[in-house]
Amino acid sequence: MNKSDAVRKKCLECAGGSPKEVTLCHIVDCPVWPYRFGYSMNDKRFWKRMTSAKRRYPEQYHEMVLSLYEYVKNRPNLAKNEHIRSILLDEGIDIYKTPCSKNKKKESSLYAKL
Fold it and tell me: Considering its fold, how many domains does the chain have in total?
């Protein structure tokens, strides 16, 4: 058994044998999470499966993305990963925009009116 088959088998076992649960896995701090399909995030099949999950299970997909955001937001090395950023951006979450910058803009526009 090769490495990718072993990862896929382990993830299926963890998810109770459900490919859907593997796809929507919210345990994003698992070291094999990016490889849970048996191939990396660089593979077109990864993105095809993620796009399909978003379309078929929008609420569960969004929960998984929020879990990913919570995990990544304080980890600069992961936040720089282009694949993780694209998953987040696809849901309208920009890891580099902070609520503080929005508040500063609001404050500055308030001062401009005075």
Answer: 1
